[in-house]
Design a protein that fits this description.
- The chain is α+β, with helices and mostly antiparallel strands.
- The protein folds into two domains: 63 residues, lambda repressor-like DNA-binding domains (434 Repressor (Amino-terminal Domain)); 184 residues, 4-Layer Sandwich (Metallo-beta-lactamase, Chain A), CATH 3.60.15.10.
- 31% of the residues lie in helices and 22% in strands.
- It contains ten helices and 13 strands.
- The strands form three sheets. Strands 6-7-8-9-12-13 form a six-stranded mixed sheet. Strands 1-2-3-4-5 form a five-stranded mixed sheet, covered by helices on one side. A two-stranded antiparallel ribbon has the order 10-11.
- Strand 1 and strand 2 form a beta hairpin.
- Helix 1 packs across helix 3 and helix 2 packs across helix 3.
- The protein is elongated and about 60 Å long.
- It starts with 6 loop residues before the first helix and ends with a helix.
């Protein structure tokens, strides 16, 4: 699985978030317009961009940006210790992850987003004799909720959790709200920016020494963050305060790209 964003994507998201013209960035890092366009779109370049200048102009950490440019990939992150967390990946022109989490003793399960298709979710529920009790939505972009309608029809008793302003009051998240899933505890943290209704769910109290898991949607990716051209500073502030403030070993499970940890993102993510 490749990173969701290459270094050019990171630079492009920062540039758009700050409202800076591409020609201004191209001039600052010593590229012509065509070279810079290729860098943003494909991550390619003829000569290494001047990272200190990029960082100063776009409020990115130049050393961390160079780390991404050099081919960094998450090393420490794995769901292996969290035996009852499964990443489910579907692809309909865009690859997206959803996550099924369950409590072994009760057989109660919670689904975080739906991805494109209900089929692999239902298969996993049946294989493990699970009862779907909760549907948690990180944000209502279509790729994350495409299978919501068929799942709601098949599991009408599953409680829906969303921060969408269109959600009924009894389904709408409240900041700091705690939902119990058997012995597991799921805490809501509001993370708008990429989406107005963005929310992160932190899952704790796994058996043994398994780390916390944060289902972050598109708020943050391994080495990057979700695009937020309309609410860029808010997005950065919320990721910093609500996600990167979690314990270092917390696993970050994004909607796209590989799983990472809080420690890794504090060390390498150019936005923070």
């Amino acid at each position: 699985m490749i990173l969701e964003d290459h270094a050019g994507d990171v630079v492009g998201k920062a540039r758009k978030g700050l409202g800076i013209d591409p020609a201004q960035v191209a001039k600052a890092i010593g590229m012509n317009d065509e070279q810079y366009s290729n860098f943003e779109e494909y991550g390619t370049y003829d000569e290494l961009p001047d990272m200190p200048k990029v960082g100063k102009l776009l409020q990115l950490n130049p050393d961390k940006l160079l780390t991404i440019l050099s081919g960094w990939y998450p090393r420490a992150a794995s769901l292996e210790a969290n035996k009852t967390v499964r990443q489910i990946t579907t692809n309909e022109g865009m690859e997206v992850h959803c996550y099924l989490v369950w409590d072994t003793a009760s057989g109660e399960a919670g689904l975080f987003d739906t991805g494109w298709s209900a089929e692999p979710i239902v298969t996993l529920l049946n294989e493990n004799n699970l009862t779907l009790k909760h549907l948690f939505i990180t944000h209502t972009h279509h790729d994350h909720i495409a299978a919501l309608t068929p799942l709601r029809k098949q599991f009408p008793d599953a409680a829906l959790h969303s921060s969408s302003p269109n959600a009924p009051d009894d389904q709408r998240n409240k900041p700091g709200q705690v939902t119990e899933l058997g012995s597991l505890q799921i805490t809501t943290r509001e993370t708008p920016g990429h989406a107005d209704d963005g929310v992160t769910y932190v899952i704790d109290n796994f058996p043994g020494f398994a780390p916390k898991v944060a289902i972050v949607g598109d708020a943050i990716f391994a080495g990057s963050m979700g695009g937020a051209p309309d609410h860029y500073q808010l997005a950065r502030e919320k990721v910093q305060s609500e996600i990167l403030s979690l314990s270092a070993e917390t696993l970050l499970c994004p909607g796209h790209g590989p799983v990472t940890t809080v420690a890794e993102q504090n060390a390498v993510n150019p936005f923070f």
